Amino acid sequence: MSTEFYLVGRVRRAHGIRGELVIEALTDAPDAIFAAGRRVFAGTPEGDVSAGQPELRIVRSSPFKGGWIVAFEGINDRSTSELWRGRTLLLPEDEVEPPAEGELFIHDLVGMRVVRASGEAVGEVSEVFEMPQGLVIEVHRTEGKPVLLPFDAQTVTGVDPEQRVIHVDPVEGLIE
Predict the structure, then answer these.
(1) Where is average pLDDT lowest: 35-44, 51-60, 122-131, 155-164?
(2) Is residue 133 pLDDT above 60, yes or no?
(3) Which ranges in the chain are annotated with CATH 2.30.30.240?
(4) Phi, psi of 3 (to 5 degrees)
């Protein structure tokens, strides 16, 4: 498939004996993405499209403890559903709603320059991690070791998607 895919969910575990899965939604619109009748594509734990059985059709879904319980066609028992733990769920780029004005996709952060409020260059975002505490960006520096910065309101003072620059004002000692 030559289409680009976006990560929309991650399978956390099996639920019950009928093949249902607990899904961590990685989208702002999980009720639309995981609606009955929709399809998603199976991905590897790394987020790549799987070979073999890439398309999954949603039979039913419901919110559950900050995530979703989802039943898919062809996954009908606990033994089968256990095999899906850790897998990702993807949608083709053309089926994902574009970000609103002033928003961007998480993957768009990679490659952006990071600059202190003073104008001093810090480096370039090489990776974004989704942690329980929130997003963390790994910044490769031109000199020195890479640093991890929280992508939160206390550290990030602005993002300019047009210029591909993230302005930061980290607490003292975080970068040094």
Answers:
(1) 51-60
(2) yes
(3) 106-168
(4) -75, 145
Residue 158 has pLDDT above 80, yes or no: yes
The answer to whether the CB of 121 falls within 8 A of the CB of 103 is no
* Dihedrals phi, psi of 5, to nearest 5 degrees: -120, 145
Please name the fold of domain 5-95: Elongation Factor Tu (Ef-tu); domain 3 (2.40.30)
Q: Per the confidence metrics, is the pTM higher than 0.85?
A: no
- Give the C-alpha separation, 73 to 103, whole Å: 34
Q: pLDDT, tens digit, for every residue of 49-96?
A: 777 667 999 999 999 988 899 999 999 999 999 999 999 999 988 888
> Which residue's structure tokens are 């769920």?
89
Q: What are the angstrom distances between the C-alpha of 24 and each of 48, 133, 134, 172? A: 17, 15, 14, 34
Structure tokens at 83: 């095999």
Predicted confidence band at 1 (pLDDT cuts at 50, 70, 90)? very low
Domain 106-168 is in which class?
Answer: mainly beta
